[in-house]
Amino acid sequence: MGRKDIYAKQYIGNNAVFADLFNMLLYQGRQEIRPEKLSPLDPVELAAPYGKTGKGFALERIRDQIKVLSSGEDGRAAYLLLGIDAQAKTHYAMPVRNMLYDSLSYTKQVEELGRLHRQEHDYGDGPEEFLSGIHRGERILPVITAVLNLSQEAWDGPVSLREMLEIRDRRLEPWIQDYKIHLIDPHRMKEEELDLFQTDLGMVFKWFRYGKDREKLEEAVRRDRHAHAVSREAIRVIESHTNSRFPEETKKEKEEAVDMCLALDMMMEEAKAAGVSQGESRLAQLILCLQRDGRNSDMVSIATDEAMRNQLYHEYGIL
Question: What string of H, E and C letters represents the secondary structure of 259-279?
Answer without folding.
Answer: CHHHHHHHHHHHHHHHHHHHH
